[in-house]
Design goal:
The complex is a heterodimer of chains A (114) and B (114). With 114 residues, chain A is mainly beta. Chain A has strands at residues 3-5, 10-14, 19-21, 24-26, 32-38, 45-50, 56-58, 64-68, 73-78, 87-94, 102-104, 108-113. By secondary structure, chain B is an all-beta fold. The chains are: A mainly beta (114), B mainly beta (114).
């Protein structure tokens, strides 16, 4: 069965520092991967997605993610975080059923230290 | 940019009562979804809907739940007899036809069962 693991429940980084959020997936075929961000009281906003092609994908708000098949990973990175990046980040995989439901990881809460 | 809208933003209901959560998907989208997020937990898939019928549902989506697209614009989730454990944030999502199209999420309805 498909699954997504985000090993870090909570991360705190200083403003201006680099960020990497980890994500590992379990899926039998080539996965369709996403990162979503959720600010407090808000919905889920798509940051970026990967299906095929270049394994380094660029998203909105200066985020990027790298797909590594050998490690079953899809880590999210940002070179310099801003206080407004504080939020919950979800890694997710879409199934290849006709419904293409999304399976989410448990999320990583990002706090920014001034 | 078009977006998925959900109403109400917060619903408070007595246990045992029926509740209907409403969603207006993006107008040219053909696939519709409901997800829920219990406080502090991951986002979970409930049901997907396409061509006026359920295409997939999770084990959470039991006989107490139903979905409907009563007209050309609304997509509703009904819980017939609410339980305390139904308290959660409920997200509606939609996506257009075609392979590898990302889902667009609404801001959610917070359902509180008393």
């Amino acid at each position: 069965a498909q699954s997504v693991t985000q090993p870090d429940i909570h991360i705190t980084v200083s403003e201006g520092a680099s960020l990497e959020l980890r994500c590992n997936y379990s899926y039998g075929a080539t996965p369709y991967l996403f990162w979503y961000v959720q600010s407090p009281g808000q919905g889920l906003q798509l940051l970026l997605k990967y299906f095929s092609g270049d394994t380094l994908v660029q998203g909105i708000k200066g985020f990027e993610a790298e797909f590594k098949r050998s490690q079953s990973s899809f880590n999210l990175r940002k070179p310099s975080v801003h206080w407004s990046d504080a939020a919950e980040y979800f890694c997710a995989v879409a199934t290849y059923s006709s419904a293409s439901k999304i399976i989410f990881g448990s999320g990583t809460r990002l706090s920014i230290r001034p | 940019e078009p977006e998925v809208t959900q109403t109400p933003s917060h619903q408070v209901t007595q246990m045992g009562q029926e509740v209907i959560l409403r969603c207006v998907p993006i107008s040219n989208h053909l696939y519709f979804y409901w997800y829920r997020q219990i406080l502090g937990q991951k986002v979970e898939f409930l049901v997907s809907f396409y061509n006026n019928e359920i295409s997939e549902k999770s084990e959470i989506f039991d006989d107490q739940f139903s979905v409907e697209r009563p007209d050309g614009s609304n997509f509703t989730l009904k819980i017939r007899s609410t339980k305390l454990e139904d308290s959660a944030m409920y997200f509606c999502a939609s996506r257009p036809d075609g392979d590898h199209q990302p889902q667009h999420f609404g801001d959610g309805t917070r359902l509180s069962i008393l």
